[in-house]
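User: Fold this; tokens only.

Assistant: Input:
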Amino acid sequence: MSEPVRGPARGALRLGTRRSQLALAQSGQVADAVNRLTGRPVELVEITTYGDVSREDLAQIGGTGVFVTALREALLRGEVDFAVHSLKDLPTAQPDDLVLAAIPEREDPRDVLVARGDLKFTDLPPGARVGTGSTRRTAQLNAYARAHGLSVEVVPVRGNVDTRIGFVRSGDLDAVVLAAAGLNRIGRADEVTDFLSVDMVLPAPGQGALAIECRAGNTSHDSDLIAALGELDDPDTRAAVTAERSLLAALEAGCSAPVGALADLLADGQIVKEMRLRGVVGTTDGSTLVQLSTTGPVPETYDQAMALGRELAAEMLAKGAAGLMGERAQ
């Protein structure tokens, strides 16, 4: 257990968070953990991001950073002491003046279906309308449907969990696809009608993981906070998501690109032997997918995890991945 954070004032630590129900739930869980670590109260500071107010599809507004920039600006202005992000929303390039002090143990990384009549994906009727805001999900769901003779129409949706599930309850859609982690964190896992296997739909890089970010230690307050938050870090999760995000970066793709990736540990009995990294990129109509995997020793350093991602990205680019992503991130 780390020593309590020693800042210039012993008041509440200020945690920057988005205003959504999910963001507040996951930030609240982090706040409780930081309170236990430091003995200091943690105050949630709600911040509206561009991604929260825009009604455009994420693919149109370039999903990279749209949920993150306002939080980071508040950090740099000193309005909050640290921020909690959904890791999959973070751009792959880390600013020099900010640090990911902790990546806690990951929640379930899978995607799930919430469908009318408790239907599973393979039981959806011909022509069923399935909503998602993700080109990654769209590409893989369409590819799976093509391969298994299913007829579904994947349609773009925006909005929070209530809004998206509301489309199903109202009959506007037959189903929506969401992240298991989000539903778990807000206590709504009982509404899931189908857990989508990662063999069917690979999640977004970093899906299910949180990122706790703060300033990069220019003062003793910042340095002490980094040390305290580090107690919440899970090394296996950090290694896995670092490899996944390295793949995304090497593909020069942003958060809204149709790229899926998942790194998991392979064990022999109780002994973890290797890390497997799987990646996929495809056209949104599902007509073409490049899906590959690589396996290597469990990364012990940041550089080793980055190398695993770059290695798989190079193989995917050699198989034509670049031509499947549309406009690549700058």
